[in-house]
Amino acid sequence: MHRNSCLRGLVAVLLLAAAATAHAQSVTVTNARILDGTGKVIERGSIVVRDGRIASVAAGAPASPVGRTIDAKGMTVLPGYIDAHRHVVRGNPQEWLDKNATREMQEFLDAGFTTVLGAIDPPQLIETRRRIEAGQMKGPRLFVGQIIPLAGAIPPPPGTPRAPGDPARTDPARQPFGGPAAPAIPRDVTLKQIEAAKAAGYDYLKTVMNATPGGPEIETQKFIVAEGRKRGLPTITHAVSVRDTLAALEGKPALLVHTPHIGDLGADPAALRKIIDAKIPMTSTLQVFLPHFGPDGKPLFRDRGPFPFDTLSSAGQGPVNARVLWEAGLKDYGYGTDTQWPPRESLFDELRALSLVFSPADIVTILTKNAGFATMHGKDIGTIEVGKYGDLVIVDGDPLARAADLLNVVTTIKGGDVVFEKRK
Q1: 340 within 8 A of 287, measured Cβ to Cβ
Q2: Both 334 and 398 in a single domain?
Q3: What CATH number should be reported for the domain holding residue 109?
Q4: Of all helices (H) and strands (E), which one includes residue 325?
Q5: What is the dihedral of CA 35, 66, 53, 363, to 10 degrees?
Q6: Count of beta carbons in the 10 Å neighbourhood of residue 247
Q7: How many other C-beta atoms lie within 10 A of the C-beta of residue 369?
Q8: Does 285 reside within a domain?
């Protein structure tokens, strides 16, 4: 009898825990100006999230509210923000996990980000995701990529000093096309790397296209894309020049993680047409070559060192190419930062760059719907539609009039769970 009583008690506790979890994932937002990410605006409406998914989006009051009710007081509600190209872990990965992960994951939520794609991050980010999903910490939805090399390194000439800091300072894509072919990597070695990435729990394979004359990069890209696809691992590709972007297209990756910022697409209609016809999503990452200004006003680069002004032309060419691509028909152009600045600071910087060539309405789409497609999870995230995750951001202001109002996050909801509320 005592054993049966204990079992009944345990079952009751589990049922209560399950009910509490379901309740935490159900919320009703009323009196909201809704920008659903598809271009539709509801001036006074409501959203019901039941068990983590959007159950209704409608004008006026909800017919069947559930969970906690949040009065948006006429403020704007958008889909949760998505950074579809980020580098999350800094420094020693285990120290980051032990000391910084909890705080930094919350910083994403505070800035409105409910989904983040870590384009090249160590297994500690996969462990962070496990902890978030287990309820051991709060954080955004995490997708993680593992880099798979396209070729071996070309040894530098004898006596060449190694450049310190961020490799983007001396990107080989900036150099004239020429020199020796990079050495090939045996296929069995590449295959083992792909299998290891799958076993470790990665979501994507990441390649870096710096094509060399007669080199193996294009054929290796094709091999990685094909083998990754067999294992459910889409390939996302770094290519920052027009030339390397065209080379990357031959392998048909699932995502181009940069806007080309070396080479003028406006002066190369054939290249522009090839990129558009490929119908591959692309992320913005325009802020990398804009100076980041710290509290003292000094211009900094992504590695927190002094800004290299010999790269500044990319700060103009990237946005120009972005608008040229947009006008030519590339509509799956999504938000990505390729940075490690705190999320709100990164949002500020990327908005500066995007605002040079895109309207506030365009930017809302880029930050939400398009970034969702860039992660390849657009069926679940990126817009406020019935059936999708209840990922919502309430902002104080009108992002359709001023993109900077996207910084004014008041409340963040992830899967129906209120994960951030600004203190009054």
Answers
A1: no
A2: no
A3: 3.20.20.140
A4: helix 313-328
A5: 20
A6: 21
A7: 25
A8: yes
What's the pTM?
A: 0.93
pLDDT band at 21 (very low <50, low <70, confident <90, very high): very low
Structural domains in the chain (count): 2
Give the model confidence (pLDDT) of 52-102 as tens digits: 999 999 999 998 999 999 999 999 999 999 999 999 999 999 999 999 999
CB 266 within 8 A of CB 319: no
Residue 365 lies in a domain: yes
Looking at residue 27, its amino acid is V
Residues 64 and 129 in one domain: no
- What is the spatial distance between Cα 195 and Cα 321, in angstroms, rounded to a whole number? 36
Does the residue 193 lie in any domain?
Answer: yes
Report how far Cα 278 is from the mean position of its chain's Cα atoms.
21
Could you list the residue range(s) of the whole structural domain that residue 350 is in?
A: 81-155+165-381
- Inter-axis angle of helices 242-249 and 269-278, nearest 10: 40
Closest CA to 204 of 324, 336, 72: 336
